[in-house]
Write a structure and sequence with these properties.
The protein is an alpha+beta fold. The protein contains eight helices and six strands; from the N terminus they run E-E-H-H-H-H-H-H-E-H-E-E-H-E. The chain folds into two domains: about 160 residues, no CATH class; about 80 residues, Alpha-Beta Plaits (2-Layer Sandwich), CATH 3.30.70.260. Strands 4-5-3-6 form a four-stranded antiparallel sheet. The longest helix has about 30 residues.
Length: about 240
Amino acid sequence: MYLLINFAEGYVVEIWEQIFRVVLATMLGAVIGFEREIKNKPAGFITFMLVSMGACLFALVQVNLIATNIKVATETTQYALDASRIIAQIVPGIGFLGAGTIIHNRGAVKGITTAALLWVSAAIGLLIGMGGINNYIIALITTLVVFPFTLLTRRLGRKYADYHRIYRVDVVILSNNEQDLYNKISDSGANIKKVFFHNKSFKNDRSVKELYIYFSIKKGYTYNAVLESILSADYIISLEDS
């Protein structure tokens, strides 16, 4: 059973192959969605399945319309083809879904990764929907090799970033205890990178300084432990972390 003659090369697209494309796109979308689901993200298993499947269906509509236009054009000698019009409309559609995931998080940047993965899921669906062995291979490798590799590099990247991250605290202290504060920060597991003097004033007849302190955390220590150590000093008037 044949559906349509695709393009002008005599390649016949069987309806069963098109069904296979839809199923494959849905399965690959589910692989990406599963990772989002177990992390309790706003777009999860079902959402990614539907995005990938929908993109594949739109690609099939494009393929079939082109095939129909070629058949009509061959019979009437009137050509009216646009190979990208339908697919181009998927771009703003997925952008709308991505924006929805960010709005769900009240504008927090947490939704950015999910929004980006929605784009990837749609692209995989398009690849499979357009057909061709090269597209199948690219979609499979992207989902089963590249995607897991990006998750691994993300974890490694976070560990590297946490080790080299620079923190900042704004503290108001009694003026005579500035060096004591620096020693306490170092002893609590931090490396002071730089200090900016912001202001000096008098509160309750006491001379106080406002400082911006930038520091990194040594291996084996935590940011919260450093903050607790600073706050334990009786010469701390106030502290804000940025």
